């Protein structure tokens, strides 16, 4: 299972983008789930997602700390940064040093136009 964590500012438009991204993956035949990033720290909830191809999660950017990354029960494969928090890309890359986590700042045009197919193709390439 690939775990995709989208970090955002407030969560409203970000959740809409992530839902659209998950729907695109489902249309391509993948088993997907969407949930709040807080489940990364709950083994029981994580178990229900074990048979998924992709687990799409969202969380506020303020939650991204070394402690949060170290205490997760799941390996995060990709961190997506929404345009509102893309300025944090260098800090998020620094947090993920020494791991295989890919960090992607979503382009404002991609986000505004809900170009989720392009974004999902990028995710699949990793």
Briefly say what this structure is:
The protein has helices at 12-27, 43-47, 66-71, 89-95, 108-112, 116-125, and strands at 2-8, 32-36, 54-60, 78-81, 102-105. The chain has 126 residues and is an alpha/beta fold. α4 (89-95) links the parallel β4 (78-81) and β5 (102-105).
Count of DSSP-assigned helices: 6
In total, how many beta strands? 5
Strand content range = 15-25%
Sheet with the most strands, sense and barrel status: 5 strands, parallel
As laid out across the biggest beta sheet, the strand order is 2-3-1-4-5
Principal-axes shape call = globular
Structural class: alpha/beta
Attribute tags:
single chain, 126 residues, alpha/beta, five-stranded parallel beta sheet, 6 helices, 21% strand
Question: Could you explain how this protein is built, in words?
Answer:
With 126 residues, the protein is of the alpha/beta class. Helix content is 39%, strand content 21%. The chain has six helices and five strands; from the N terminus they run βαβαβαβαβαα. It has a five-stranded parallel beta sheet with strand order 2-3-1-4-5, with helices on both faces.
Topology:
Elements: E1 2-8, H1 12-27, E2 32-36, H2 43-47, E3 54-60, H3 66-71, E4 78-81, H4 89-95, E5 102-105, H5 108-112, H6 116-125
Parallel strand pairs: 1-3, 1-4, 2-3, 4-5
